[in-house]
Task: structure prediction
Amino acid sequence: MDIVVGPYGMQSPHPYRRPHVDMYDDLVEHAQRAEELGFDGIALTEHSFWYDGYCPALLPALAAVAQHTETIKLMTGALLLPQHDPLKVAEEAAVVDRLSNGRLVLGLGAGYRPEEFLGHGVPEGRWGARLFEAFEVVRLALTEETFSFHGDFYDYDDVSLATRPVQTPPDMWICAGFADWAAKGSGRRGWAYCSTGDLMGGSTVFDTYTEAAGRAGVDTGVLRRGLFRDVLVMPSELEAEAIVDEDYWPALNDQFLGFGFLRMSNADGTQVTELPENMKEWYMKHPRNPVGTPAKVREMLRPVLDMDLDLLLVRTVWANFRHDRSLATMETFAKEVMPMLREGDANGRGA
Amino acid sequence: MRVGLSWDLDTAGTSAAQTHVLGEAATAARFGYDSAWVREGRDGRGACSHPALLLTALSRKDATLQLRAIREVVRANPVRLAEEIAVLDVFSRGRAGLAFAAAGRQGRPPLQVHETVDFVRTAWAADEFRYRGDHVRFPTHTGDDAPAGASFPPARGSDGYVPQWELGPATPDFLTVTPKPHCPRPPVYVEIDDDATLDWAAAAGVSPFVAADVPADTAVERLGRYRKAADTAGRSRAEVEVVVERVIRDESPPALVSFVRDMHAETGLGHLVLRRCGAGDVDLFRFAVDVYPLLQG
Result:
């Protein structure tokens, strides 16, 4: 099981602003530190048109990180593929894979904010179908010397990339939360699938994924499962609480409000503009979001060892966290939690 | 006088081109050169059709070079263009710039280049906005009743307006492109091969760029016309940077210095870019030692 730190969104939210130039400097330092600490990869995630400066250009950013790291995998987790030209994504991916000597991992998602599709000139609707088609275009472009593709959204004849990736193709994942269509669509195609887990953090999404593969006649042995977790671990409960109150929640609160999670109406038809009163407590105690001391986080993460995972994406920091705390939580995770995951993974695979 | 290097990735080879460019640029930085310019692969399948990607990688190998992407508007999504250069600018702490190839090279009308330049400059500088042009429309559903070019939302609260990121409407009429560049207005250049673009760029304060394949006498003539048009439009000469790209092979230092000084006197040339072609290129170290100092002052 690969353990990847991130994804980093590079946001600088209202309640906790940091200069982007500093955060991008930190990103390179974090990647180097993650490599030293034994993480298998570092991931970036994208969105557009959000006031906090969320990173919209993952592959250029990873190209820069590649210059200062040697072994750590460089993951898009996720690049919102339907909002891009898939052929350009393939071209860029090939270059990043070469610049990193074969370390690129392409996590590709659909996105869900209407404004992003409208802003990038993509018609609304059928985002999942568009994702699967674009994924196939990228896969073909990075695998075949020359390829043609004729679909509902994309149409290519005899296309070949001048730059070939080191990997043929780079590792590719569908990253799509817990949406039913994503689990089923990935399973039917036998493609690797990275999820947030189901609503309560459980593994029913992977059951759906496996069942869809089986029904489609896909060898379930080729399936690969990835899971995303927000994890905040510090040596003491007090230090963890400080990060939650001062770094994590202000950023997350901003994110909840702005990203359309609450773009819904009250009973009287007015727009919801405030988070529910107990949202913070609910979120922080949710089994999907381990927060606290190493012992507590180890216990909360233990169930993932039963999920037969190939990839665990752990967001131990956000780019806007205080720099010393960012490094501290990453280091605590690597030294106090990762060994349990490595050992459990090895035992599970051997059993 | 600034001196930089440029590479055209269509002619620089294929898979090995990126590492070659990164290596040569890093060497140039050590020798004191000022800038690195990377031209988009023209057939769209070049070794790297996204110069910003290569320049972002370069931004972390060196802390001094000005980083300039030379892009076409064909196949370019102007929003992505603005986003990519902004990320390059924050990664490089304000060293990014963007040049546009001439419309004629791309088989596109000059207006498409003008609108793309206008859109990108607006995206970097403005918060929420929309854009209605003949070739650029942002967001997609912007109607024909919107004012031509960039337009901006009413003041917060008036007519019930709420910025999109503060739970405004799900289908927004105005959007903000982020992140913003570290330098509020990264320099923008355009090739002035056609008269429409020459006049437009001069009036709009967009810096002129003359590519290596334009003959020297033509370059002087067009830059002279640009200067006159800019003066007529009331633009300050300090607003723009005149850039000329040349292939320099075996000219003797005195002849080259004389050529550059003459061009400077006639056109206001401020930035000489040495186009790298491979075999026969001028030696970077010798040029830095023998010629570069003579171009200053």
Remarks:
- The first helix of chain B runs from residue 17 to 30.
- The first strand of chain B starts at residue 2 and ends at 8.
